[in-house]
């Protein structure tokens, strides 16, 4: 028997109210667990530190105080249990109301209001055509790869001329502010690529035209947001000595280069190898895009109503997830908004259209799963855990038991069911050319040089706009 029982009431705009009740037994067990934690630092005559029995701890602190701490420690777990017991797929953050603290032997009651994934009504799926292009290795991209390879094998050669943008200069320098040298302002035998933009604005520009053996002063202003606070906004003069001007020389595109750079016999063979690799990469991208187009096709064949408030809730949910991930890297919430140059409300508003589309896709796939009666078997769950289990040094069976114990089995079942649904849709889809897809106003995978946001992967309309 579950520790939490629920009653669900549907509300407007794809929201529900869940009235939940935690059994008296579960409340008492949670209180005993809390008392054990409190006992760790409790000193009482007749007991060793940390060995005070839970009932004694509860009498010492008072039932209400221990129950209040229990609620603080356990409400998150009970909220999750309530959502699972009600079999809800939630969107956004819950609005939680907790009832009065229960007397001994009485249940704990609380309620929550939250958005839920909208329901979709599937249309006719007998005709399920999706456009898909063939992989290709564009000659321009092959040439670009060759140029990058040449850049990686380029050599710097000393030249007797004035330095120009793209050259590298070997210099030593001493920086001064108000005639005084400052920490970090000196360097010896430093290589600087002119035009790279790696130094303070203006520094590299003032070295253009310099020759080996020349000395010149370079005057710059440190930016107001410079990393070293004592240099922010300061004007500095660097006495620079140019030791050498070096020119980047690219190797010739010939068979010798192909052998040295890639270990192949000829330039033609190198081009073929690069083309084959680019085609393979393009093919993998096409499969991902085709998968998305299949889901979008299903979405467009379904009726789904997504209230604006629900889309905003999903956008806020995704934003908070991003902020929590950045917090692990030391980037605070306020710092993130400052870096983005936008408020939380502005970021949520920007993300709301894509959040709405995401909810439509999820609702359509969920409706297809229900219509098809897709229920992953135990073997399907274990197969999906093969990779994660290997990474964690365990077996799929042990990992599944852990997920069961931690209450995450339902999430795994949902993920695997979605994967199976999409695979079934892909099997049913009739692949048509991009030209036919555009003519029939279908979805298609974008061309190699076509951004999906500009029309690829979206319905084609005769006026050129996505519909």
Give a brief rundown of this model:
The chain has 467 residues and is of the alpha+beta class.
Descriptive notes:
Strand 1 (4-11) and strand 2 (15-22) form a beta hairpin. The chain is an alpha+beta fold and 467 residues long. Strands 7, 8, 9, 10 and 11 form a five-stranded antiparallel sheet that branches. A four-stranded antiparallel sheet has the order 1-2-4-3. A two-stranded antiparallel ribbon has the order 5-12. The chain has helices spanning 24-39, 54-61, 63-85, 139-152, 255-262, 267-300, 308-327, 333-340, 344-372, 378-384, 386-391, 396-405, 409-428, 434-439; strands at residues 4-11, 15-22, 90-98, 108-116, 120-122, 129-131, 155-159, 168-177, 180-193, 215-221, 235-249, 302-304, 430-432.
- By DSSP (H or I, 4+ residues per run), the number of helices equals 14
Runs with pLDDT <50, length 5+?
Answer: 450-467
- Supply the CATH superfamily name of the domain at 4-116: Trigger factor ribosome-binding domain
Terminal CA distance reads: 50 Å
Instruction: Note the overall shape.
Output: extended
| CATH architecture grouping of the domain at 4-116 | 2-Layer Sandwich
What characterizes the major β-sheet?
Answer: 5 strands, antiparallel
Element order: H for helix, E for strand: EEHHHEEEEHEEEEEHHEHHHHHHHEH
**Mean pLDDT metric:** 90
Q: Write the CATH fold name of the domain at 4-116.
A: Alpha-Beta Plaits
The rounded Rg comes to 32 Å
- Beta-sheet strand percentage? 15-25%
CATH classification class of the domain at 4-116: Alpha Beta
Q: How would you classify the quaternary structure? A: single chain
**Share of helix, binned:** 40-55%
């Amino acid at each position: 028997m579950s520790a939490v029982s629920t009653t669900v009431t549907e509300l407007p705009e794809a929201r529900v109210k869940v009235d939940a009740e935690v059994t008296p037994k579960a409340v008492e067990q949670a209180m005993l667990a809390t008392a054990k934690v409190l006992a760790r630092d409790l000193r009482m005559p007749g007991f060793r530190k940390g060995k005070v029995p839970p009932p004694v701890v509860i009498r010492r602190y008072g039932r209400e105080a221990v129950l209040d701490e229990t609620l603080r420690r356990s409400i998150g777990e009970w909220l999750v249990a309530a959502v699972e017991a009600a079999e809800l797929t939630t969107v956004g953050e819950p609005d939680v109301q907790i009832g009065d603290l229960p007397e001994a032997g009485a249940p704990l009651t609380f309620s929550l209001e939250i958005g839920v994934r909208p329901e979709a009504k599937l249309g006719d799926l007998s005709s399920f055509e999706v456009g898909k292009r063939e992989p290709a290795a564009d000659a321009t991209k092959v040439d670009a790869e060759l140029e990058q390879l040449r850049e990686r094998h380029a050599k710097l050669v000393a030249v007797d001329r004035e330095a120009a943008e793209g050259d590298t200069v070997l210099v030593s320098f001493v920086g001064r502010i108000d005639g005084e040298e400052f920490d970090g302002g000196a360097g010896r035998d430093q290589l600087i690529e002119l035009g790279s933009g790696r130094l303070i604005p203006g520094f590299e520009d003032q070295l253009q035209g310099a020759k080996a053996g020349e000395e010149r002063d370079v005057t710059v202003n440190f930016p107001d947001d410079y990393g070293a606070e004592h240099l922010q906004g300061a004007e500095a003069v660097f006495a620079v000595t140019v030791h050498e001007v070096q020119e980047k020389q690219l190797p010739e595109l010939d068979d010798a280069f192909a052998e040295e750079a890639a270990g192949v016999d000829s330039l033609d063979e190198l081009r073929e190898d690069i083309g084959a690799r680019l085609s393979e990469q393009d093919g993998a991208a096409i499969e991902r895009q085709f998968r998305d187009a299949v889901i979008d096709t299903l979405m467009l064949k379904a009726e789904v109503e997504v209230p604006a408030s629900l889309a905003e809730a999903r956008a806020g949910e995704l934003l908070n997830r991003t902020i929590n991930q950045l917090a692990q890297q030391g980037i605070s919430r306020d710092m993130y908004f400052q870096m983005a140059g936008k408020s939380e409300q502005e970021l949520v508003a920007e993300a709301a259209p894509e959040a709405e589309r995401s909810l439509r896709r999820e609702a359509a796939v969920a409706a297809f799963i229900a219509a098809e009666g897709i229920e992953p078997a135990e073997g399907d769950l274990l197969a999906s855990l093969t990779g994660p289990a290997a990474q964690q040094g365990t077996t799929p069976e042990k990992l599944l038991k852990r997920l069961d114990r931690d209450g995450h089995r339902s999430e795994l079942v949902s993920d695997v069911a979605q994967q199976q649904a999409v695979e079934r849709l892909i099997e049913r889809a009739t692949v048509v050319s991009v030209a036919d897809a555009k003519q029939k106003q279908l979805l298609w995978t974008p061309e190699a040089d076509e951004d999906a946001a500009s029309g690829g992967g979206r319905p084609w309309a005769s006026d050129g706009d996505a519909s």
